[in-house]
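Sequence in, structure out. Go.
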Amino acid sequence: MERFPLPLKAELSIRGSQARLLGGFVYQDPEHGAVQVPTGFKTDFASVRPLRTIAWTLLGASLAVGVVWAEVGACIGSLGYGALALYASVVGYGDAAATIHDRLYTTGELSRKASDKVFFNALCSSGVARWRAWLMWCGVRLAGRQRYQR
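Output:
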């Protein structure tokens, strides 16, 4: 059974931070059945831009602090490089799964935990490596609470 029977067709906004679906989109989850996303739905795909901002902020802070206190600056810099490496390992992956996840978070049709499980399943179904899918799932479990609509 094809988990994604329709291709994801989206148009990026001028700024590139959001996309609008040009056609309907469906994911067939093994546990929760069909999740449908209508034409015109807006998504930001995987919301990893804040991670990039955190990385650059930490790297900048490490330079500023390192001038006065080298050991602390180095520690902050290490955190910045870690955040940058994490960002690089997840950016650009799982657009189809992220679109499904954004829809579930917007409608609240499933619980947050179930929506995150569907996201993980969709990532794996779309060919994202299991370790990367796990990292992305951890991200939504840790930071997704404020975006979930009940």
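Check: The CA atoms of residues 2 and 28 lie 8 Å apart. The longest helix spans residues 70-90.
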